[in-house]
Amino acid sequence: MIQTKAFEQKKIKNNPYLFINLIFGFFPISFVIGSLFVNLNIVLIICLGLFHLKSKIFTTKLDLSVKIIFLFFVVVLLSSSLSLIKFLYFDGYGDNNFLRFSKSILFFRYFLLLLVIFLLNKFDILNFKYFFIVAAFSSTIISLDIIYQYIFGHNILGLTTSGIRNSGFFGDEHIAGGYILRFSFFAIFFAILFSQNKTYIKFISIIIIICILGLGMLFSGNRMPLILFLFGLILLFLINLKIKKIIFAGLVSLFIVLAFIMSSDATYKALYQSFSGKAKNIIFGHGTTEWKKTEYKKLEEKSQSHKTSFYSVRWESEHRRLFLTAIDTWKFSKIFGNGIKSFREDCHRLAEQPNVSIEENLYPGKKNRLCSNHPHNYYFEILTETGIIGLSTTLIIAFFFVVFIFRNFKFIKQIDAETFILLSATISMILETFPIKSSGSLFTTNNTTYLILVGSIIISYKKLLKFKTE
Question: What is the pTM (predicted TM-score) of this model?
Answer without folding.
Answer: 0.88
